[in-house]
Amino acid sequence: MTWDAIIFYILVAVTLVQVFYYLFFFRRLAYYKPKEKQQSQEHPVSVIICARDEDENIARNLPGILVQQYATTHEVIVVDDNSLDDSKYILGELQKTFKNLQIIPLTQEAKMIKGKKYPLSIGIKEAKHEIVLLTDADCVPASEHWIYKMQDAFTPGVEIVLGYGPYQKAPGVLNKLIRFETFHTALQYFSYALAGNTYMGVGRNLAYRKNLFFQNKGFSSINNIPSGDDDLFINKVATKKNTAIVLDPDTFTFSKPKPTWREWMRQKNRHYTTGKYYKASHKILLGLYTFSFFLFYPFLAASIIFFDWRLSFIPFGIRFLVQAIIWNKAMKKLKEDDLINWFWLLDIWMFFYYLIFIPAVWKKPKKDW
């Protein structure tokens, strides 16, 4: 077999791997339809937010959580982690109006516990209710029904509920890239969860049972890692049957995206440092998809140049068609419709994205949160 034919066959193999992921995994999200419920339920809920020097975000976003339409007992806990700004004054004023707002001020650092895990652990420990619903200070729910619709997914046997935390739409290329990366990540963790292989959740919109947290000794096994209070914890405690997802647009929690390339790259580098701590099976699952994605365009180009361009466009066309159908449906489901017309350019961008960010997997994580 000649070397140019080998290039083509590698392209075919890479394409088959990609198509497998789209048809076996990502199809689940694209065609997902929640089961019709005979009756709804209302559990007592503790919403927990950890904040450090987030006075502007608290003033802007916290009222959207405090005015939730939820008749059953619930509380909103804000853990003020050593803030030096005006957070305590703003929280104090809000507490005068909203009696269900509980403020936990932390005035000392946890020296042996990195990142957000200590304040979050304190918030969960102080929570009065079994179901804890987590979000961040820079997030605001899409509607007043966020609490109700997220907790309603806790049917018997469900201990974890994954929600979607998109970024706000704004003009510019960077905004589209940030929102696409968020969509692409959600495409994976929602699809794998639907396949019974949950590997992560995002702290911007995540709920689980308090008992699950304490049965697994909280974050004790990952306290030495700055991040991971969401994805690594879920990676540890999720099973094939204890996780549900909620895709109702009323439950989305929107964040303001980073305004500059430098800030976004710093954020993504920090996030990717946790990937090395996933379960081996998840690292293989994610790694094979990423590796095949990364190889596709180089081998497509090489096959077109050195082999037969007409044959080379067959695997390209098959992947393009499958991808277009799946991404189109999934983007509509997650209300990222405006990205559909750009999907082929965003697909090419992912090659450079992996080139830029994958080295972060081997970097030593920083100690801040």
Would you write up a description of this structure?
This protein is an alpha/beta fold and 369 residues long. The protein has helices at residues 3-30, 55-66, 87-97, 117-126, 146-151, 173-194, 210-215, 231-237, 261-272, 280-306, 309-333, 343-357; strands at residues 45-51, 74-81, 101-106, 131-136, 139-141, 160-162, 206-209, 243-245, 253-255. The protein has two domains: 3-30 and 281-362, no CATH class; 45-276, Spore Coat Polysaccharide Biosynthesis Protein SpsA, Chain A (Alpha-Beta Complex), CATH 3.90.550. Helices cover 49% and strands 12% of the residues. Helix 1 (3-30) runs parallel beside helix 11.
Provide tags for this entry.
single chain; alpha/beta; Spore Coat Polysaccharide Biosynthesis Protein SpsA, Chain A; two-stranded antiparallel sheet; 12 helices; 9 strands; elongated
Low-confidence stretches: none
What string gives the helices and strands in order? Answer: HEHEHEHEEHEHEHHEEHHHH
If strands are numbered along the chain, what order do they take across the biggest sheet? Answer: 3-2-1-4-7-6-8
> What is the radius of gyration?
22 Å
CATH architecture of the largest domain: Alpha-Beta Complex
Record the SSE blueprint.
Blueprint: H1 3-30, E1 45-51, H2 55-66, E2 74-81, H3 87-97, E3 101-106, H4 117-126, E4 131-136, E5 139-141, H5 146-151, E6 160-162, H6 173-194, E7 206-209, H7 210-215, H8 231-237, E8 243-245, E9 253-255, H9 261-272, H10 280-306, H11 309-333, H12 343-357
Parallel strand pairs: 1-2, 1-4, 2-3, 6-8
Antiparallel strand pairs: 4-7, 5-9, 6-7
Helix pairs in contact: 1-6, 1-10, 1-11, 2-3, 10-11, 10-12
